Structure of Acid phosphatase/vanadium-dependent haloperoxidase-like protein:
Amino acid sequence: MNRGITTALLSIGLAQFLKIPIQKVRTGKWDWGVFFETGGMPSSHSAGVSSLATFIALKRGISTIDFALSTIFGLIVMYDAQGVRRQTGELSIRVNDLYEDLDRLEKQQKRAELHEEKEEKIKEVLGHQPQEVLGGALLGVATGALSYRISKK
């Protein structure tokens, strides 16, 4: 298989796996489900694209079109992960809060249901904080460099 693709995929998997012990440290509970969730530390999106760009830089050089494409692609992905996707997550929090407020008001007013009760909340953790993107990018650079070193042997 293509070494660049393998490097990026392994970096994504490693970032997702690292979310499990980080979550344990934060909450005190093991939650293996975070492996399959978006958001959190480190950003697997950032890890994947930065590992690919790093591998290409070391293998082909920084003056190549390959590196230019992977870098611009990576910057767009990282910007999106901490910008648009994070804003969507914050909007989801507000929508979920509105539903809770409506439920509370209906109970206080003792009225018939004015809205349909939602069975489950909208997913709130979609994007990344800047430090999560940076953590993923650093992990990706390290993974990309390690992959390049291993491939040279």
